[in-house]
Write a structure and sequence with these properties.
Cytochrome p450; three-stranded antiparallel sheet; iron ion binding
Length: about 550
C-alpha cells in the first residue's frame, strides 16, 4: 500500500512538472512538422522538408543526433546504411521502439500491440505476416486487379461529374479531388479485405473507419505522457486520463473491426478475411493435444492494420501526380503518346496493357521516390550494441531510415539521368529486348521499408497506383489556372507521419469528347458485382 502511494505521489509530481513546463514553454503546432524528423531540422512552416536534404547531406550516411536535444536517434541517410542494418543485420533491427500508447489502445502487453505494424518481430508477428501474405502478393493479383480496374473506371466517372460542376468545366483543386481518390482506394482495400465496396464518398462505414484511423494516427504521431513515462500505463483508469481514453478507443476499434471481420467472413465471394481464416487454421502453432486457434480478435486487428496502411497513404501519394504534372509537364505529353499508341482512344487502360506501358509504371515509381508519403519511414529499435562506418549504435536506441534521403542517394540513383530533386520517370527505365523500354527492378523504393519489416501491401500499392496513373493520364490534360503563380513542389502539409501537397487549383481537361464517351460507356457496362469481379471463395 505504501509503495502504491509513493508511486502515485511521484506520478502526480511528474505530471505537475510536465504541465507547468508545457504552460510556460513555447507552444508548437504539432501539425506543422513531421514526427521525429521534424525535430531534427528547422524548416519553414509551409515547407516542412525544405531543410531535410541539407541536414542529411551534412550528417552523412549515418547520423546520431539528439531528438529534443536529449534523446539519441540513429538516422540512416543512404541505401547502403539501410541495407546493411535493416537487411543484412535484420535480426537486430526488426523490432519497434516502445510505444505504450499503441499497446494501450489495442489492449496489449509491452511489445505486443495488436497492430502488426507496431508489434515486435516474434513468432506471433511471423504467423500474422504469413496469414496476410496470400491476399496481398502475386498469387492474389488476378483477384484484385479486376477490382482496381473497376474502381479506376468509377474514379474517372466521378471526376467527370465533378468537373461538370466547375464554372468553366475544368478548374478543380487537390482538396476537391482528394475525397474521390480516397473513395477509390478505400473501396479497393475494403473490397479486398472484407468484400465491401464503397460506391460513394459519403458512405457511413467509410467515415466511421476514417474517424478511427484519424485518432490512431494522431496518437502514433503525437506520443502521450505514458510513452515518456511507461509506468503510467499501470495506473487505474480512475487516476489516468490516458487509460480512460485508450479504453474508449480500444472498445470502438473492437466494435468496428469485428463488424468488418464478420462481414468479410460471411461475404459470398473471395476476400482476405476468408483467406486469413483458412491460412490461420493451416499454420497456427500446434500443441501436443490440439490445434491452437488464432483468436478472431487478433485476426480482425491484423486485417485492420492492413487497411489502415492502404487507405491512408495511397490517396495522398497520388495527389503528387498533379503537382508533378504542373511542375514537370513534359512527362505528361510522352505518357499521352504512349497511351494512345498502346491503349488507343476507344477503351480505358487495363492491366493486360502493362507490359507495353513501362513508362507509366516508371511514372508511378518516380512518384514513390520523388515524394515518399512517409519521408521518415517507421522507426525500429536496435537490439544490441553495434557499429557501422565508425558510428556506435547503442542497444535500445531508435533507428529510422530516411526514405526521402535514400531516394536521393547518388550512389543508387544516377544524377546524370536527371537532377534527383526533379521528377524524371526515365530514371526507372532500361532498354530491353528489341530496344523496347523495360522497368528497372534494381532500384529501391525506400518508402516501403526494407528487410523483415518491408510493407506487405507493397504489391497492392504499386499495382493500384499504376492503374490510377494510367487512367488519369489517358483521360486528362493537367494545366495551370490562368494567372496562377508557379508551382512550388516543396509546399506541403503534414498529416501524422505523412505529407501531402498544399491545396492547389488547376485545370483538369478531358483530352477530347472521345474521353467522355469512353468513360460513360465503360462505366455503364462495367460489372459491379464483387462476386463476379473478384471470384467466389477460392481459398488457398
Amino acid at each position: 500500500m505504501a509503495a502504491t502511494s509513493a508511486v502515485v505521489v511521484i506520478v502526480i509530481g511528474l505530471l505537475t512538472v510536465v504541465y507547468i513546463s508545457r504552460k510556460n514553454g513555447k507552444k508548437m503546432d504539432k501539425l506543422l512538422k513531421l514526427p521525429l524528423i521534424g525535430d531534427l531540422h528547422s524548416s519553414p512552416i509551409e515547407k516542412p522538408l525544405a531543410n531535410w536534404d541539407c541536414w542529411a547531406r551534412q550528417n552523412g550516411p549515418i547520423a546520431v543526433p539528439n531528438l529534443f536535444g536529449i534523446i539519441p536517434i540513429v538516422v540512416l541517410n543512404s541505401y547502403e546504411a539501410a541495407t546493411e542494418l535493416f537487411s543484412r543485420r535484420s535480426q537486430w533491427y526488426s523490432n519497434r521502439p516502445p510505444s505504450v500508447s499503441m499497446e494501450m489502445i489495442t489492449g496489449a502487453a509491452p511489445g505486443q500491440s495488436r497492430f502488426t505494424l507496431m508489434h515486435d518481430y516474434d513468432d506471433h508477428l511471423k504467423l500474422h505476416h504469413r496469414i496476410l501474405s496470400p491476399s496481398l502478393g502475386a498469387l492474389a493479383a488476378p483477384k484484385y486487379q479486376p477490382l482496381m480496374e473497376l474502381e479506376a473506371k468509377q474514379l474517372l466517372h466521378d471526376l467527370v461529374n465533378a468537373l461538370r460542376h466547375s464554372p468553366d468545366g475544368s478548374t478543380i483543386s487537390t482538396d476537391a479531388i482528394y475525397p474521390l481518390l480516397e473513395r477509390t482506394q478505400s473501396s479497393v482495400i475494403l473490397a479486398l479485405h472484407y468484400g465491401l465496396r464503397i460506391p460513394h464518398p459519403d458512405e457511413n462505414i467509410l467515415h466511421e473507419i476514417i474517424d478511427i484511423q484519424v485518432q490512431v494516427t494522431h496518437l502514433a504521431a503525437n506520443p502521450a505522457l505514458p510513452d515518456l513515462i511507461p509506468p503510467l500505463r499501470h495506473l487505474p483508469a480512475v487516476l489516468s486520463p490516458w487509460k480512460r481514453a485508450a479504453d474508449r478507443l480500444y472498445a470502438a476499434q473492437v466494435d468496428l473491426y469485428m463488424r468488418l471481420f464478420h462481414h468479410g467472413r460471411d461475404a459470398a465471394g473471395w476476400n482476405a478475411t476468408k483467406q486469413a481464416l483458412s491460412t490461420a487454421a493451416k499454420y497456427a502453432p500446434a500443441s501436443s493435444s490440439s490445434q491452437v486457434q488464432v483468436p478472431d480478435l487478433d485476426l480482425a486487428f491484423t486485417l485492420a492494420t492492413s487497411i489502415q496502411g492502404g487507405m491512408e497513404t495511397s490517396p495522398r501519394q497520388l495527389l503528387w501526380l498533379f503537382i508533378a504534372a504542373l511542375h514537370h509537364p513534359s512527362f505528361v505529353a510522352r505518357a499521352h503518346a504512349i497511351l494512345d499508341e498502346v491503349v488507343g482512344r476507344d477503351r480505358l487502360p487495363r492491366f493486360s496493357d502493362r507490359a507495353q506501358l513501362a513508362f507509366i509504371d516508371a511514372v508511378a515509381h518516380e512518384l514513390f521516390r520523388w515524394r515518399p508519403i512517409a519521408p521518415g519511414s517507421i522507426p525500429r529499435r536496435a537490439d544490441r550494441d553495434d557499429e557501422f562506418q565508425g558510428v556506435k549504435i547503442n542497444k535500445g536506441v531508435t533507428v529510422m531510415a530516411n526514405a526521402w534521403g535514400i531516394g536521393r542517394d547518388e550512389q543508387v540513383f544516377d544524377p546524370a539521368l536527371g537532377d534527383l530533386q526533379e521528377f524524371v520517370p526515365e530514371r526507372w527505365l532500361r532498354e530491353g529486348d528489341a530496344g523496347q523500354e523495360r522497368l528497372r527492378s534494381d532500384l529501391p523504393l525506400p518508402v516501403f521499408g526494407q528487410g523483415r519489416r518491408i510493407c506487405q501491401g507493397r504489391r497492392v500499392a504499386i499495382d493500384g497506383t499504376f492503374m490510377q496513373v494510367a487512367s488519369l493520364l489517358w483521360a486528362f490534360d493537367v494545366e495551370m489556372v490562368d494567372g496562377a503563380g508557379p508551382v512550388d513542389p516543396w509546399e506541403m502539409v503534414v498529416v501524422g507521419f505523412m505529407t501531402m501537397p498544399r491545396e492547389r487549383r488547376f485545370k483538369l481537361k478531358p483530352r477530347g469528347d472521345w474521353v467522355l464517351d469512353v468513360i460513360k460507356k465503360e462505366w455503364e457496362t462495367a460489372e459491379k458485382s464483387l462476386d463476379k469481379v473478384m471470384g467466389m471463395a477460392d481459398i488457398e
